[in-house]
Amino acid sequence: MEQKAKELAMIIEQAQNIVAFTGAGISTGSGIPDFRSSGGVFDQISGRHYSGEEALSAPFFERNPALFYKNFSETLSFPDAKPNFSHSFFYELEKMGKNVTIVTQNVDGLHEMAGNSRVLDLHGSATRWLRVADKQEVAFETIHTDDKGIMVDATGERVRPDIVLYGEQLDYNVITDSIRAISEADLLIVVGTSLQVSPANTFVETFRGKHAVLINRTKVPMMDRFTLIAQTDSDTFLKEVWNVLEKGARA
């Protein structure tokens, strides 16, 4: 991987507009499980009469709100999670003067926590909470669980995490901004995603730049679209890349 790390470092040095398209794999190093692998989120919340996807769907939330909140709290709420090196790497690129846009399928808020100024959350953020009635944001500190297992704000109004559930539409403006950022980028770095979730997986097809890089443990659809592929752990690989960039800066 050393040679590939050197190649990516050289590509980054020459690029100005960089998009990182990230999925659950980038956050596993922060202790957050991915969705589809064995032992992942879907496995954890699948019940006798429902699948993992169903348990995170809008109809399920309406039919079984108390069970939805329980599943969410146990599998998608990670208040103690911190950004890992892969998250911080892209903030460091921004500090170097690169125009970095993060397009993420994750809802953990770790890219924002790492410091990146432009993060497009395709599926929303589990760190934000909204009143169900009027979609107004509510401070998490004011939320509690009532005696029926329903999460409510200080006034007793039901709340929900600001995430896109199965059966709901992605935010049109976020989609538009994501496609524009990818299509205008010099460099696209795809990290920790199986590229199986539609429509987000189709966004990669809008990239028109010279270098598309994949950092993922397993193969994905559209492998032929990538000019550099590192089938490995993102933290390990990006540390190698950063070491090369630092040496170049000191030279």
TrEMBL record:
Q: What is its EC number?
A: 2.3.1.286
* InterPro entries referenced in this protein's UniProt entry, alphabetically: DHS-like_NAD/FAD-binding_dom, NAD-dep_sirtuin_deacylases, Sirtuin, Sirtuin_cat_small_dom_sf, Ssirtuin_cat_dom
Presence of the UniProt keyword Transferase in the record:
yes
Q: Which UniProt keywords apply?
A: NAD, Transferase
Domain (Deacetylase sirtuin-type): give its ranges. 1-251
Q: Name one GO molecular function term.
A: NAD+ binding
Q: What is this protein called?
A: protein acetyllysine N-acetyltransferase
Lineage start: Bacteria, Bacillati, Bacillota, Bacilli, Lactobacillales
